[in-house]
Design brief:
With about 350 residues, this protein is of the alpha/beta class. The protein folds into 2 domains: about 190 residues, Rossmann fold (3-Layer(aba) Sandwich), CATH 3.40.50.450; about 130 residues, Phosphofructokinase domain (Rossmann fold). About 35% of the residues lie in helices and about 20% in strands. The strands form 4 sheets. Strands 3-2-1-6-7-14-15 form a 7-stranded mixed β-sheet, with helices on both faces. Strands 9-10-8-13 form a 4-stranded parallel β-sheet, sandwiched between helices. Strands 4-5 form a two-stranded antiparallel ribbon. Helix 1 runs parallel beside helix 10, helix 6 packs across helix 7 and helix 7 packs parallel to helix 12. Bound molecules: 6-O-phosphono-beta-D-fructofuranose. 6-O-phosphono-beta-D-fructofuranose binds next to strand 12.
Length: about 350
Amino acid sequence: MKKILILTGGGDCPGLNAVIRGVAKSARKEKWEVYGSIEAFNGVLNEPQEIIRLTSKRTAGIHVKGGTILKTTNKSSPIKFPVMQQDGSIKFIDRSDELVDKLKKLDFDAVINIGGDGSQRISKVLFDKGIPIIGVPKTIDNDLSATDMTFGFQTAVQIATDSFDKLVTTAESHHRVMIMEVMGRDAGWIALHTAIAGGAEICLIPEIPYDVNKLVKRIELRYSKGRGFVNIVIAEGARPKAGSVTASTAEKGSEHVRLGGVAYQLTKQLKDAGCKAEIRETVLGHVQRGGTPSAFDRVLASAFGVKAFELANENKFGRMVALRNNTITSVTLKEATSEPNFVKKDTYLVKAAKELGISFGD
Ligand code: F6P
């Protein structure tokens, strides 16, 4: 009987469980045994190993649940694995050969790696070393160019928009400037979609550095006609033209620095530039990654799962499933990781936002 291993890596994202269920259901139909590795590849690397059988009882109805039943981590890439040294510092080591040995001994006929760009880079390394692997793209940031959309993104935008709508009524009541910070370290897609959906006055994203003086002018314009109010969406990775992004130090072993707090930094910049209005900040944070996936994300994630098994069944390894032109298809892992999907200044949504009166401060 053939065996398939599923795992989820990187930050969690609504829809992961729907992918797991999609793979598992279609694999079981073809009489494959389905397994899951706990906490990305740690389940394989750890001694004792943590690999569980994904029975139909374990995966029934999980597409509705947020998070991942297989758990995840963004702190133990097998190609850059953090090892604590005696002096407390962290050294990163390459454990890919050890992982390949262990996977070969386990003798899976297919491995499904559900994760973002970092995870798919790992997939590529493992595929090049002989592992029959298939990638499934996930990220709420929607920053992978090989797929038109990643699951989790729509849910995050809906959560952000619902929050934004609530902030509009309180901004209006108090004649305040409300700054709402959303996720997006390099890509401003969540901020851009939320700003349009919510009807923001200002949208600040990592790809378009802003001029604080222009923002103050935009705010003054709103207040010039009487008791104004302003709603701003800012992505955590946004920065002024002159200045850098707020980043707290990285957690030990983390693959990236922790962002968060640009909303407070923006308040200070606005005040320093002469903004008289009262300002309040809301940092949405991980709320955007949690909870029930939207219907759209459940559908996309489920179809991705089914497609991933289809590729495995046809021995088409070294590929990542993708949504392109409204079709579920696949691309090579090389293509999958070659280019990020950032908001371009001339993208139609930026033009539309500007036509709607949204300022990017550029
Ligand atoms: O990559 C997705 C993302 O949500 C980013 O937008 C954000 O910067 C990061 O994950 C936060 O990750 P963590 O779970 O480490 O706080």
